[in-house]
Write a structure and sequence with these properties.
88 residues; mainly alpha; two-stranded antiparallel sheet; globular
Length: 88
Protein backbone atom coordinates (compact mmCIF):
# COMPACT_ATOMS: atom_id res chain seq x y z
CA UNK A 1 0.00 0.00 0.00
CA UNK A 2 2.71 2.45 -0.98
CA UNK A 3 0.03 4.71 -2.47
CA UNK A 4 -1.58 5.14 0.96
CA UNK A 5 1.79 5.80 2.57
CA UNK A 6 2.65 8.42 -0.04
CA UNK A 7 -0.70 10.17 0.41
CA UNK A 8 -0.26 10.07 4.20
CA UNK A 9 3.18 11.64 3.92
CA UNK A 10 1.80 14.42 1.70
CA UNK A 11 -0.98 15.14 4.15
CA UNK A 12 1.32 15.08 7.18
CA UNK A 13 3.80 17.38 5.48
CA UNK A 14 1.13 19.98 4.81
CA UNK A 15 -0.26 19.58 8.33
CA UNK A 16 3.16 20.51 9.73
CA UNK A 17 3.54 23.51 7.40
CA UNK A 18 0.08 24.98 7.99
CA UNK A 19 -1.75 23.32 10.89
CA UNK A 20 -4.85 25.51 10.66
CA UNK A 21 -5.96 24.84 7.08
CA UNK A 22 -7.12 21.22 7.47
CA UNK A 23 -9.44 21.38 4.45
CA UNK A 24 -6.45 22.04 2.19
CA UNK A 25 -4.11 19.39 3.57
CA UNK A 26 -2.83 16.58 1.41
CA UNK A 27 -4.36 17.24 -2.01
CA UNK A 28 -2.11 15.96 -4.81
CA UNK A 29 -2.62 16.37 -8.54
CA UNK A 30 -2.88 13.02 -10.35
CA UNK A 31 0.02 13.89 -12.66
CA UNK A 32 2.23 14.73 -9.69
CA UNK A 33 1.22 11.52 -7.93
CA UNK A 34 1.98 9.57 -11.10
CA UNK A 35 5.50 10.99 -11.14
CA UNK A 36 5.99 10.39 -7.42
CA UNK A 37 4.95 6.73 -7.69
CA UNK A 38 6.28 6.18 -11.21
CA UNK A 39 2.97 4.63 -12.20
CA UNK A 40 0.35 5.49 -14.78
CA UNK A 41 -2.90 7.20 -13.81
CA UNK A 42 -4.73 3.99 -14.72
CA UNK A 43 -2.57 1.94 -12.36
CA UNK A 44 -3.15 4.46 -9.55
CA UNK A 45 -6.92 4.25 -10.12
CA UNK A 46 -6.73 0.45 -9.88
CA UNK A 47 -4.76 0.75 -6.62
CA UNK A 48 -7.36 3.16 -5.22
CA UNK A 49 -10.13 0.73 -6.12
CA UNK A 50 -8.28 -2.18 -4.52
CA UNK A 51 -7.49 -0.27 -1.33
CA UNK A 52 -11.12 0.74 -0.91
CA UNK A 53 -12.21 -2.83 -1.58
CA UNK A 54 -9.77 -4.26 0.97
CA UNK A 55 -10.85 -1.79 3.65
CA UNK A 56 -14.50 -2.65 2.96
CA UNK A 57 -13.76 -6.38 3.24
CA UNK A 58 -12.17 -5.73 6.64
CA UNK A 59 -15.37 -4.06 7.81
CA UNK A 60 -14.37 -0.39 7.76
CA UNK A 61 -17.55 1.68 7.58
CA UNK A 62 -16.00 4.55 5.59
CA UNK A 63 -13.93 2.44 3.21
CA UNK A 64 -15.01 4.48 0.18
CA UNK A 65 -13.68 7.63 1.85
CA UNK A 66 -10.23 6.24 2.65
CA UNK A 67 -9.05 8.09 -0.45
CA UNK A 68 -10.84 11.28 -1.46
CA UNK A 69 -10.99 12.80 -4.91
CA UNK A 70 -11.99 16.31 -5.96
CA UNK A 71 -14.33 16.16 -8.93
CA UNK A 72 -13.40 19.55 -10.34
CA UNK A 73 -9.59 19.15 -10.31
CA UNK A 74 -9.19 15.39 -9.95
CA UNK A 75 -6.85 15.90 -7.00
CA UNK A 76 -6.46 12.98 -4.61
CA UNK A 77 -5.73 12.76 -0.88
CA UNK A 78 -5.86 10.37 2.03
CA UNK A 79 -9.29 10.67 3.60
CA UNK A 80 -8.36 10.68 7.28
CA UNK A 81 -6.86 13.65 9.07
CA UNK A 82 -5.85 12.06 12.37
CA UNK A 83 -2.84 9.97 11.42
CA UNK A 84 0.78 9.23 12.16
CA UNK A 85 3.43 7.41 10.16
CA UNK A 86 5.90 5.33 12.16
CA UNK A 87 9.16 4.13 10.72
CA UNK A 88 11.08 1.11 11.94
Amino acid sequence: HYLLLTLARCRLSEMKQNPGATAAHGWVHPEQLSKMLRKSALHINVEIYRARQQFAELGFAGAVKIIERRRDTGEIRLGCAGLTVNTL
